[in-house]
Design goal:
With about 425 residues, this protein is an alpha+beta fold. It has two domains: about 5-190, no CATH class; about 220-424, no CATH class. The chain is about 50% helix and about 10% strand. It has 13 helices and six strands. It is elongated. The relative contact order is 0.10.
């Protein structure tokens, strides 16, 4: 029997936090268990009590009030208001978890920990333990009913949680919890995440940001594949830092990496053909872009074009293959649920790979000036103190005389992908 089932006074900590979706359990329903895998799972216990609270669902009503107000404003008062938006109000249920666990049950071995509290394992941190168990309960009810219940995550909690301390006993056979008056006064614990009310007063875009939005809009419209890698990487960061969806973050980050590697090779091949029309065409390159052959393409075509280290154990590419890329396969093919630390490590390896690719493009700027300017940009070259010499002469003497590169490469890449798809 695990040590945590033994009777005896324990220092307990209590949290209150809401679930992102109401759980269909009776008010006051409880469970005492350790998060993890086993029969029973080993490790410190947590006792969760699920309380139901009903309140007015004003979010929809407030949104509709804004819609009606803007409609009245743009119509210059010519349309008579039809309501305040309150007709969209309803009552919603919020499930609040009262979570109790051992305050001193922490593992001492924290090798590889990066210092972020949310990256600790359930046996190492009492809040992570309670969130993990709550997520397992939600998963179980989701399997029962098939409802679209969102999982609680560290990042999904409000920026502060209530906590207090007391003495009692936690075990599976029956717990002895402190009486309400025996808990210490409640305190606020600030969490280490970015999930704050950022949408209340968003920062207005300045002239530079408006200009940049026009650039990215053009990239989307012309089908530039590089923008897709950037977008997937941003979505990975949102999933990781705002929603706490660690598996999704790993998959999206690795999708960004695969798109980056393939689009970089496509960009280099396009520039080679532009300089010498005897070089392989998009149709010929399409046969090399068959699904499942990414490593072959990198080894046979990308490494000798970009030079640099692609094979040693310290290479960012090898570190990514053995780390984040391998973790992605465990998630996709084995439904593996990574810890936050594993996901954080994977995203770091992805970031290092992207930096490596762009650094290599910069080093090869005199051989592939169009690729350097399109992927890193003049500002990126200038930040690296590389906007000088031959690349400046290229910009002055040649670049302005050619048709827009983004359109030409976008068409090339789309043709390449079409041929590759047909060849599968």
């Amino acid at each position: 029997m695990p040590d945590d089932d033994k009777a005896g006074p324990q220092r307990l900590v209590r949290f209150f936090f809401p679930l992102p979706s109401p759980l269909p359990v009776p008010d006051g329903w409880s469970i005492t268990e350790a998060p993890g895998v086993g029969a029973p799972p080993p490790g410190p216990l947590a006792h969760l009590i699920f309380w139901q609270h009903e309140e007015s669902a004003e979010a929809m009503g407030e949104s509709m009030k804004a819609v009606l107000a803007v409609r009245d404003r743009v119509s210059d008062g010519q349309i008579e208001g039809t309501g305040s938006g309150r007709e969209w109000l309803a009552t919603r249920r919020v499930t609040v978890v009262e979570a109790i666990t051992q305050a001193d049950a922490k593992a001492t071995n924290r090798d590889g920990w990066d210092g972020e509290p949310q990256n600790l394992a359930p046996e190492q941190d009492f809040l992570v333990r309670c969130i993990t168990l709550a997520a397992q309960v939600v998963r179980a009810f989701r399997l029962v009913q098939g409802d679209p219940l969102q999982l609680p995550t560290y990042e999904g909690l409000p920026p502060h949680v209530l906590l207090s301390f007391g003495e009692g006993e936690l075990n599976r056979q029956g717990s002895r919890l402190p009486a309400p008056a025996d808990w210490t006064p409640q305190a606020l614990m600030m969490l280490n995440h970015m999930n704050i009310a950022f949408d209340l007063l968003p920062k207005s875009a300045g002239a530079d940001e408006l200009r940049q939005s026009g650039f990215w809009m053009h990239a989307l419209q012309t089908g530039a594949p590089g923008v897709l890698a950037r977008e997937q990487l941003q979505l990975a960061g949102i999933a990781m830092d705002w929603r706490g969806e660690y598996a999704e973050a790993v998959v999206k980050a690795n999708t960004a990496s695969e798109v980056l590697l393939d689009s970089t090779l496509s960009l280099l091949a396009w520039e080679e053909h532009l300089q010498d029309d005897t070089k392989p065409t998009a149709d010929e390159w399409g046969l090399e872009f068959v699904e499942g052959q990414l490593r072959t393409r990198v080894a046979h075509h990308l490494t000798h074009r970009l030079k640099g280290d692609w094979t040693s154990t310290s290479s960012p590419y090898v570190r990514w293959l053995r780390g984040g890329h391998a973790l992605r396969h465990r998630i996709v093919h084995g439904a593996y649920a990574p810890s936050r630390q594993e996901a954080a490590d994977a995203l770091c390896e992805v970031a290092e790979l992207h930096t490596h690719v762009f650094d290599r493009i910069c080093e090869r700027r005199n051989f592939y000036p169009r690729a350097a300017i399109m992927s890193v940009g003049q500002e990126g070259l200038e930040r690296r103190d590389l906007l000088r010499g031959r690349i400046v002469r290229f910009l002055t003497d040649i670049a302005d005389t050619e048709d827009p590169w983004s359109v030409a490469w976008g068409m090339w890449h789309q043709r390449l992908i079409t041929v590759a798809s047909d060849a599968r």
